[in-house]
Amino acid sequence: MPIQVHIPSPLRDQTHGQTTVQVQGASVKDALDDLCRQFPGLTAKLFDKGEVKPFLNLYLNDEDIRYLDNLATVTKDGDELSIIPAVAGG
């Protein structure tokens, strides 16, 4: 079973409206690379100079990857990766 990536509303235009996408990868970085391979328009939306853009939060099974091993966090079949854009306003 692959990894399921939850796509936030602002990025769904790049995934043809899909709310979730299945990807493969041994790490969060591998999973994101597969996501961007399937939907090349996401690369510029997710990454800046090879790093995840700072206003995006990534959660693997409800755990912030910044408190795990960041992009090197190991994934396994059945994991869920959520892309959460930061919300700002005032």
What does this structure look like?
There is one protein chain. The chain has 90 residues and is an alpha+beta fold. It has helices spanning 28-38, 42-46; strands at residues 3-6, 20-23, 47-48, 51-52, 56-60, 63-64, 80-85. The strands form two sheets. A five-stranded mixed beta sheet has the order 2-1-7-5-6, covered by helices on one side. The chain has a two-stranded antiparallel sheet with strand order 3-4. A hairpin with a 2-residue loop joins β5 (56-60) and β6 (63-64). The chain is globular. The termini are far apart.
Pattern of helices and strands:
EEHHEEEEE
The class by helix and strand makeup works out as alpha+beta
Query: In one word, what is the shape?
Result: globular
Strand order of the largest sheet: 2-1-7-5-6
Quick one: CATH class?
A: Alpha Beta
Number of strands: 7
Domain count: the total is 1
User: Roughly what is the average pLDDT, rounded to an integer?
Assistant: 95
**Beta-strand percentage range:** 25-35%
Q: Stretches where pLDDT falls below 50 for ≥5 residues?
A: none
CATH topology: Ubiquitin-like (UB roll)
**Helix amount:** 10-25%
Major sheet characteristics: 5 strands, mixed
Number of helices: 2
Superfamily (CATH H level) name: Beta-grasp domain
Mind telling me the C-alpha Rg?
A: 12 Å
Distance between the termini: 42 Å
- Overall CATH architecture: Roll
